């Protein structure tokens, strides 16, 4: 029997066809999976942090313009912590000299900066001498070391950036120019950098910590590879264990695992053909598909095994299972796909890719569940244990209990929901690209050490335009820039400011006999231009001023290094800087930009875009439910258990944790598509009892518990287990998204087993649903 006669006849005929031509269906399914899966060879991993931002993202556009104007900031910062805590010991300076020299041999290197090759300027008679601050470290005398210490720890360009004021830590900053011709450029650079760092630690009494944007890109890549290599095997083990425990059939469990494998192969292969790139978020699609693909198989298997326990033959039981389940399984696959497709409204392309890959996987899982799985079970020997399962007995008891206490359940659950939802506003958005990585990861640890001992991980860049070629030498422009730099250095969040004004002050002092009274900006444009030209002509290859000045010297870049701040404080300091420029030097007004601030803004941007996507998904899924159930009343009732779980998950998170990142904006759309599955299965069985058997609402609820309750429990537990595995990821975007989804699925199980039956009994009490 089925939910409607026409559907039942059609589904039964399809079931008969699958069982009759089981070998054809089996091999056709394998052939489709092989052809589609061949596209997996086209999959490539994008390890650039910029992939998190869409092409029309205003912060990304501003940042790319800045990157085209000045030297790129793709860097690796070698933080050197001497075990003797003295950077200026000859052996340590020798290590810095060695690293500075050998860093030029790294792949794609563009520039190397350190305290040893810092271009120190002094005046000799009427000449300006520009030379490395440290040369031949092991042969330096004590007075020479003292002078180097004095210069390095007091020079604004070095202090709190390449050397700690206390002299216990230093760094070598290596800038790269990636040609972007191959996906392995970043791993190549990182592997060479790690080898160089290991050699330095072996040869000298120092510890080396690697940070910077290149290391960040590589950390994204390594997290995705780690998740794929650990999560996927763990998921298979959990699925096998839970399915075997609850279904109690080895053959059925094998069939379920094969459906998962074929679904993953198909979805990832099609993704390859579509040119979708793998990123840390989109790579999670494999684990999510594995988790969700189980649900369809479980519903078909539980019904078939149940029919076999009642005495039906294997093939007859399969036909009955398809007749009963094909329509709701199709609906759940479509609604789940719709939920994930809503991620296309995200401003972050990797999450749109995650949604698309998963949606493809869900449609593939449907076809393999209603085609390959019954064909497989019809061929191989399957034995169903006699008698009702223990879980089935519990479902009967639960149905009786819910019917008997429906009024108390309705008011009790409503009170619980109001209480939990009250904590939703307690959640605080905080996107911090360093905090995306667990504290156990090497990248996070290296950033922490660098931040504690030397400098911050976050930078803001302000490009100040003078309005004319060579305008950076204009005294008025220099004074205004200098005032802005002075204001920045007074801000408590600021660790270091790099500005061309410090160079002009030092040159002015040098060319006035190194008189400290002249450590100030030059007051004549021609003089300032001469200083700059003289200095540039003295600089060695690779150490030009392109990191601070544009080509025609009409603009200069002020780079602000900040403490490791949360996204709100990052936005605040950027807005304060922009406000200061607008109020004090309106002609120089610009925005502060950089990777950190780009991530700081993306949560708000995603929430706004995903509100539209989630709303459209709600409307579309609700319309489908009303159309399928042929009842506006049941459709309206279904909205409650479909929308409430995500809200309850956010409320629980607000109470226990209270901090969310960019992934949070994806959870509502995702969970909507997932949690609606159980509601569909429960309501279709409830409606079947009401229409075909003429049962009243309480007995129809009991019927639904008896016929689909066990499958709902099994699928929910597998879903919770699967997302809980993903929640162990060291990458916070994936782990937070997974944990919130697991909580939402748990809340959905409670809502479908407690709130939904109570609502049906109270609101659908007519003799028969039409």
Question: What does this protein look like?
Answer:
It is a single chain. A hairpin with a 2-residue loop joins strand 3 and strand 4. The chain is 63% helix and 8% strand. It is built from 24 helices and eleven strands. The strands form four sheets. Strands 2-5-1-6 form a four-stranded antiparallel sheet, sandwiched between helices. A three-stranded antiparallel sheet has the order 8-10-9. Among the domains are: 1-42 and 248-387, Multidrug efflux transporter AcrB transmembrane domain (Multidrug efflux transporter AcrB transmembrane fold, Up-down Bundle), CATH 1.20.1640.10; 58-215 and 439-593, no CATH class. It is α+β, with helices and mostly antiparallel strands and 770 residues long. The chain starts with a helix and ends in a 7-residue tail after the last helix. Helix 1 crosses helix 11, helix 4 (90-102) runs antiparallel to helix 6 and helix 6 (185-203) crosses helix 7 (213-247). The relative contact order is 0.12. The protein is elongated and about 105 Å long.
